[in-house]
Amino acid sequence: MRIGDRSLRLTWLLVVVVVVGSLVGSELAERPPLTNADRVHDLAGDFACPVCQGQSLGESDVPIARTIRTTIRTMVDRGRTDAEIRSMLVARFGENIDYTPRGDGLVGLVWVLPVLVGGTAMAGVVLSIRRWQGRSTGGSAPGRPVVLGIVAVVVVLAGVLVARSAGERLAGDTLSGDIRSSTRTLLADAGVASPDEAISLYSRVLEIQPSNVEALAYRGWSRWRAGDEAHGRSDLDEAVAVDPTYPDVRVFRASQRHADGDHAGAAEDLVALDGLMAPPIVGDLLEASRLRQRIATGLAASGDLLVALELLDSGLGARPDAADLLAERGWLLVATRSPELVGRGLVNLDEALALDPLDPYGLAYRAVVLATVADRPGDAAVDLARFAGLTVQPADLVDLLVVVGLLEPQPEDGP
User: Fold this and answer.
1) Which residue from 14, 100, 112, 353 has the fewest beta carbons nearer than 10 Å?
2) Does pTM top 0.90 for this prediction?
3) Cβ atoms within 10 Å of 204's Cβ, excluding its own
4) Under DSSP, is residue 213 helix (H, G, I), strand (E, B) or coil?
C-alpha cells in the first residue's frame, strides 16, 4: 500500500468519525436545565390521549386527559424520572399511548435504522470518490471491506447511543425535579402584588412546582377576574383535580360557576367545601359575600328548589347557628306560595330571628311574609321598625320593601 493511499484512507476515516461524533455529541450534550413545568409539558406532548383521535394529552381537554396530566404533574413534583412516568402510563394504557419508541430491544431499531441508512449512504459516497480518485491517478482501488467495516462499526455505535438518549429521553433527569426556589416566597409576594404581577408570580411558582394547588387556584381566580375567563376556568379545574380538599379553590370555582350560570356546579363545590376542615376565614368570606344564598336563589329560580334547600341545609350542618341561612331557607319556602311550605318557611324565619334578632334578612323577609301572606300587619310593623333602626340596611332588602309597599322610596339626590 502506498503512503498516499494510506494517508487518504486515514483522512476519510477521520472525516467519518468527526461527522458521526459531532452528531452523537450534539445529541448527548448536556441540555439546559428544565423546569418541572417544562417536563410536564414535554411529557404531555409525548403521549396520546386514550380516547381522542390524533390528539396528545397536552392538546386534549377531555376529563381523562386532564386527570392524566394531573398525575404527571404530581409525579414530576415528587421527583419521579421521565422513564418511571413513561413506564407507569404504558403499563396502565398500553404501548399505543406512547408516541416515543423505546431505545432498547427491537423497538430500538426505529432509532438505529435511520442512522444505519445514513452511514451506508456516506460509505457509498466515500467508495465512489475513492474509485474515481484511483482511476484518475492510475492507482488501485481501496479495500472496500475495510472501509465498510469501519463505517459500519461507527454507525452502529452512533445508532445505539442515539437510541439510548432519544428513546429514553433521560438527558434532563438529573437537572430537573428539584425545587431550587422558594415557592412560599413567591406566593407571599403574589399576595400583595398587582393582578398582572400576581399572575406572573403564580406562573413562576408553577414552573417550579406544577402541582402547587395554591398557585393554580389563585392564578385561576386572578385570570378569571381579569377577564381571561377560559384560562381562569382551566386553572380552577386543574386545581380541583390536583387537590379536591383545598378549600380556597372550592370557593373560587363556586363563585365562577355561579357567575357563569352553572348554579348546580357551584352548589356541588360548596357542598364539598362543607365536608372539609376549612379555616374560619373561608366561612367569614362566604357569610360576607352571601355566596351560598345567592347560589340557592339561582337554583330556586331555575326550578331546582330541592337542590337549593340541600345546599342551605349543608351549610347549616357546618354552621347550625347561621341565622342568615335559616332566613334564606324560610324565604325560599315562602316564595313557593304553597300553604304547607309557607308555614314551614315562617317557622324558619322565626328560628332565624331567635338566633339573631337583628339579622337584616330575617327582619325584612318576615316583615314581607307577615304583611302580604300571613295578614299580620301589626307584627310586620314591629319587624319593619327594627329593620329601620339598623345601622346597615342592605340595598337589596330596601328595594324589596319598597316594591311590596312597606317602605317609601327614597328621594333621589338633586343635581
Assistant:
1) 14
2) no
3) 18
4) helix
